[in-house]
Design brief:
The chain is an alpha/beta fold. The chain folds into 2 domains: 116 residues, 3-Layer(aba) Sandwich (Rossmann fold), CATH 3.40.50; 239 residues. The protein is built from 14 helices and 14 strands.
Length: 398
Amino acid sequence: MEFLGYERPDGTVGVRNYVALIPAGRCANELAARITDEVGGGVVALLHNHGCIYLKPDRERALRALIGLGTNPNVAAAIVVGIGCEGVTAEDIAEGIAKSNKPVEAMTVGGEGDYQTTLDKGIKMAKEMLGDVSLLRRQPFGLGQLRLAMKCGGSDTTSGLGCNPVAGWAADAIIAQGGSAVFSETAELIGAEHIMAKRAADESVAQRIYEVVGRMEKRISDAGVDIRGSEPTPGNIQGGLTTLEEKSLGAIAKSGTTPLRGVLEWGERLKKEGLFFMDGSANTPQMFLGLASAGAQILTFGFGGGLPARFHSVPACSCGALPILPVLKILSSPKDAKEKEYFDIYAGTIIEGQESIPEVGDRLLKEITAVASGKPTRLEMFSHYREVMEMYSTSPMM
């Protein structure tokens, strides 16, 4: 099986072909948005909430994530814009992106002298880059060039039986062809970490699983609270889930069955084939940003059902915040089948006894291949809302 993608100078393959406007800090969001709105289609602003009041660990994490966005295979060229006084500088971000050998420029209001000059230069630069990348053409590639990210939400009793194992089946198929897959949500490993540790490729990977879960549990206990006050969520409970462990068992079903090759820090780059776990929160916008920064070209989002399934976008993150990462939505619950036109794959047929997991998994794999070749996802067709991305922060904010 093949897909049609864009070859990048660093050997990766894009499934989209964007010029990205990346603000160095949140103060430059408006500048990036203005340039994007002036130029139009093919140019996207990757707006985010990172400011200049963060401690060193969070600044380093933000730098890694912003470089990762620029080096994501779905970005053909990038412009980094700043005010000139950010803690994470436009020049450092551009320097990191430049290592991928793709076109990148950096500019700041301080360096150009004033806002209007910077805006005018940015518009001219974006138009020139868009003209150049529009000449790129799709070529055939094997599934081994795909990096699939997986997320679940709106979890209920059907999640671990339908949408999640279907995503896992597709991940297994891509990995079998030499590709890679990555999933996250550390809090949703709690109670199932021993199962993932048994699937670790070696002892060091198993220890890393216990390390990141323990780190998350300590962070929660240090706050003087019990995670069981927020997990399962009220929506999960309405959907029939009763314990955190039950939710975790359903959540890890999306990881498939292959050995776990490694554990990444949030936003850390995928470097080889196979299955990976990324440390991070269950906050959807933060997870999308981390997975895109890792280099994922496509993300599957499994919905059990309930109220979240009745949104035509994605609750808590419209995905308009991160247009470089196409998202395929999977629905499990037959109770919400009336909403299935807003989903890319309906997996409720498994619950209804009409199809097996491999049969729906094969449909999903074909849809992933089609989207990788340029077919728009439901979210790309229906979602027009733009939201600021959220950085993952673990240090106190000054």
